[in-house]
Amino acid sequence: MIKQIKETTEYLLEKGFENPEIGIILGTGLGQLINNIEIIKEVSYNHIPNFPTATVEFHKGKLIYGILEGKKIVVMQGRFHLYEGYTLQDVTYPVRIMHRLGIKTLLVSNASGAINLDFKKGELMLIDDHINLQGGSPLAFKGVEELGTRFTDMSAPYDLHINQHLEAIAREHNITLHKGVYASVLGPQLETRAEYRYLRTIGADAVGMSTVPEVIVANHLNLPVSAISVLTDECDPDNLQAVNIEEIIAMAAKAEPVMITLFREVIKKL
């Protein structure tokens, strides 16, 4: 993997991806942030050596380099998931590349379902902790110790300093920002009623199919990371409705401007 990381990084440096300070991963239905960026360079994933290719229709599949709030940033417009058939090393490869390019902070977004019935669709949740239910670890491969400490501490996976900034910004802008635990599952099928009850019992406030692998690797790299879930549906097992993916995407897009405000304001402070 070290050879691949070097090859990919050299390609992006040649393309002008120089000294980004902040990396951003945009989740399902969350691509409008791009409209706020002064774009300098952009490259499709399928042109980048050793990069996976986004296969989900609502993930654009571009790596973008530009300026936002006076900071150089690199943005993944679309991420990768295990349910696409990728490995955990594939899914997290871009985090290692952004780190090698020079980012000092990683911001992550996702669309998720609200398990906590006090949370409503269209609201946001700041991830305070997570539960990995994806059945594996992105650090479980031979040679991982060449890239960082094998036994990575996860006692505080989300950066307290950044999270405190985000909570203060939310108060200043009268934004509802819940704080809770995110459960990451394999997918792509949605959960059954019994599974939603189980997730609630073990302490999950929201559920999705991403984010945790990237956060584990960020911690492996000692890279401060913060993540926000856009809550797109309410997962009440006693009143469960059939899921409409188009409605979930529409809800993510509707709530996204508030998330963009949080990200733009916190970037000013980083």
SSE map:
Layout: H1 2-14, E1 22-26, E2 38-44, E3 62-68, E4 71-77, H2 88-101, E5 105-114, E6 124-133, H3 160-172, E7 177-185, H4 193-201, E8 206-208, H5 212-220, E9 225-234, H6 245-269
Parallel strand pairs: 1-4, 1-5, 5-9, 6-7, 7-8
Antiparallel strand pairs: 2-3, 3-4, 5-8, 6-9
What is the C-level CATH assignment?
Alpha Beta
CATH fourth-tier homologous superfamily? Nucleoside phosphorylase domain
Radius of gyration: 17 Å
Distance between the termini: 30 Å
Shape, please? globular
Major sheet attributes: 5 strands, mixed, barrel
The strand line-up of the biggest sheet is: 5-8-7-6-9
Q: Give me the strand/helix succession.
A: HEEEEHEEHEHEHEH
Derived from helix and strand composition plus strand pairing, the structural class reads alpha/beta
Work out the helicity level. Answer: 25-40%
Tell me the β content: 25-35%
At CATH level 3, the topology is Rossmann fold
> What is the count of distinct domains?
1
Mean pLDDT: 93
Please report the total strand number as a whole number.
9
Per DSSP, the total helix count is 6
User: Architecture in CATH?
Assistant: 3-Layer(aba) Sandwich
Oligomerization: single chain
Which ranges are low-confidence, i.e. pLDDT below 50, for 5 or more consecutive residues? none
